[in-house]
Amino acid sequence: MRSATLALALVSAAALPLRAEENGRATARHGSNDQASVVASSGSFAFELFFNSLAFGLDIAALEDAAAPPPRQPVVYRQRDSAEAAWDVPRRKMQAREGLLLSFGFGGGSAYLSSNGAGRVGAFDGDFRLGYGFSDRFQLFMDFSGDTGRYPQYPDFASWMFTIRGQTVLMGDRAGNGLSVNFGVGVGGVDYDNGAYSGYSSPTGLALGGGLSYDARLSPSFALSPEFFVNWHQIPSRPGFADDVSSVYGVRLNFLWYLK
């Protein structure tokens, strides 16, 4: 762009004396006759046309130079060793509910065994969980729970379940506090203990379990998690007889860890 502007200035400077000379000649010959005046005017018009055409071309060249992209600078790549390259890649920050999940809890509830007649009795509940949190939105764990109680004039019982459960967050924050729901499928059974005599166990049957819990974080890896739970499983009977069922619902307090 500078070269075009400089050329335009030089042409303008060179044209000034030529235009002055043409004007002088036109003034000197103006009084002689009309023919000389026409010749002088024709020469001035031709010069103006040439000068204006040249200036227009230089303007176009200047615009093209201004619109042209700047030349690309060569990219210099520097070879780095493996240790330096490892530091350049930041480690992804794990989410609050991500990592090894470990939990145990205690509580109580109401139990029902159809094999022991109508009515419900109080039961003590214990629970253990081991699994993995893949993100804040989904956790998968094994759950082993047991509920013990006693019907009047019946032996003590312990209803147990082993399930594989999935859990998701209904509402919460990034720090790990929030309301969660879990549900799972597995197997369950009942063990009886009649004191003086040896105990016996029922066959295992299909089990379903679920819970609604609230995680209250006390540290980045530990939370207290009160939970309302529901457990249900079949108690298979001998062929020709209807199956019995066991159902327990109640509240427990879980001690929950997410280990990174």
Please provide a brief summary of the model.
By secondary structure, this protein is of the alpha+beta class. The chain has helices spanning 2-28, 34-67, 82-88; strands at 99-113, 121-133, 139-150, 156-172, 178-193, 200-201, 205-217, 222-235, 244-259.
What pattern of helices and strands is seen along the backbone? HHHEEEEEEEEE
Topology, number of strands: 9
The fold-level CATH name of the largest domain is: Porin
Ends distance: 62 Å
The CATH class designation of the largest domain is Mainly Beta
Mean pLDDT: 78
Large-scale geometry: elongated
Measured as a percent range, the helix fraction is 25-40%
| SS strand fraction | over 45%
Q: Which structural category do the helix and sheet elements fall into?
A: alpha+beta
Second CATH tier, the architecture of the largest domain? Beta Barrel
Topology (elements, then pairings):
Layout (H helix, E strand, L loop, with lengths): L1 H27 L5 H34 L14 H7 L10 E15 L7 E13 L5 E12 L5 E17 L5 E16 L6 E2 L3 E13 L4 E14 L8 E16 L1
What does this 3D model show about the protein?
The protein is of the alpha+beta class. It is 26% helix and 45% strand. The chain has three helices and nine strands; from the N terminus they run H-H-H-E-E-E-E-E-E-E-E-E. The chain has an eight-stranded antiparallel barrel with strand order 1-2-3-4-5-7-8-9. Strand 8 (222-235) and strand 9 (244-259) form a beta hairpin. Helix 1 (2-28) runs antiparallel to helix 2. The longest helix is centred in the N-terminal third of the chain and has 34 residues, at 34-67. The protein is elongated, with a radius of gyration of 47 Å.
